[in-house]
C-alpha cells in the first residue's frame, strides 16, 4: 500500500484535511475512478465513479461506507481501514461537540463535556435540525432550477430524498423512491440504471423517463412492476443486473423495413411516434394501465396474447406482433398516435 495507507495512518484535524488524505490514497494508488469503482464492486461495495469524484471534490466528511469502499478498492488492510474510520469519527465528534451546550463556555466545569452523560434531548434535536438544514441547502443549490415554480407539496417530497447520494435506502433517503421526487438519492438511482444498461437522463429528477426505466428493469428482472424503487430494486441494480442489450435504432429500422415491405416508412414513423424507437419504453396511461415496447402493447393485449412484459420489451417480438396486427387490416389503424406539431 502507499504512504497514505501504511501502518501509521496520517492524521487529520479537519474534514478538509481528511478528504485531502483520501485524495492522496487515490492518487498514490495509480487507479482511475472507473478502476476503483470496479474494484469496489468486486469487493462487495457500491462506489460509482461520479460518487467518488464528488466525494473527493468536497471538504466535508464522506460517509463511512464510501470511505470503506474507496480504501478497500485501493488495497488498504482491514486494520488500517478501522483506523481511518476512527479518525473520521473523532473529527465528526469535534465538529458537533460545540453545539451540545448552550450559553457560555463551561469555565470551571470544562471537564464536563467529556462526561458520557446522556445529552439533553433539546440540543440533540437542534443538531439534527442543523444537519438536515445543511443537506437541504446543498440540494437546493444543486437542483434549484427544478425547484423554481414547484408546489409546496413537491418541495416537501424533495426534502425526503436529499442527503444520501452515497448510501441509498439508509439515513437521509426514503425507503421508497417514487415519481415526483428529486435530489441526490434519485441521482444515485439514475446512475445505477445507466450502469445497468438502461439509459436515462441523470438529472436527479424522478420523472416519467426514470419511472419508465424502473418499470422496464422490474419487468426484465421478474420483479413486481410498481414503477417505484425500493431497497430490493436498488440491491438488484447493484448486483450487476443482466439487462439484455437494447436494439439500436439502425437495427430497428432495418427490421421494420423487412417485416413491413408494403409500407416500411409508415412502420418506422409509427414506432417512432409511439415509443421514440425505444424498445424499453413503458408508458403509464391515465387509468393506471401500462403500454410496453416499440408498438406500445397494453397490459390487456399482452394478457390476450399470453405473453409477459419481459417478452413485450423484446424488440423482435414486439415488431413481429405489430406485423400480425397490421396484416389483418393492411394499415396502422390499430394504433393512434397524433403527429408531432
UniProtKB/TrEMBL annotation:
Presence of the UniProt keyword DNA repair in the record: no
Entry's transmembrane regions: 135-159
Location of the Peptidoglycan binding-like domain: 185-236
Disordered, as annotated region: 96-125
Source taxon at top rank: Bacteria
SUPFAM superfamilies: Lysozyme-like, PGBD-like
Keywords, in A-Z order: Membrane, Transmembrane, Transmembrane helix
The keyword Transmembrane helix is annotated on this UniProt entry: yes
Protein name in UniProt: Peptidoglycan-binding protein
